[in-house]
Amino acid sequence: xxxxxxxxxxxxxxxxxxxxxxxxxGSEFSKRHQRAWAAWRAWEKGGEFGExxxxxxxRALHHAMDEAxxxxxxxxxxxxxxxxxxxxxxxxxxxxxxxPGRPPGAGDPxxxxxxxxxxxxxxxxxxxxx
Length: 130
Hints:
Blueprint: H1 9-45, H2 51-81, H3 88-93, H4 119-128
Helix pairs in contact: 1-2
């Protein structure tokens, strides 16, 4: 017969901290996700304006996409640390806009960079290597 032990206070604190961390990262990613879509909508309408404004909108879009991809990666890493291995729900619930000429970000199910060890770093270097 096995005895059931009452959970230790430290175990409860660890679980609470894990949930809190996941919630914070999820909240930050949600903000970045909304900013990326707002920048994409502004960029889509940018054809009505001059070339300088269009270029500024494109830079803002790429910056917003970089941030959203980075925080999606953080969210997926946190989920992995908690033992959650299926990230399809993250990608289904929070799709990022498709920008012509921009490769998919880390964590994107269509990305060839799904091998996580160093995947984000490789993508980051590729994005800014000229």
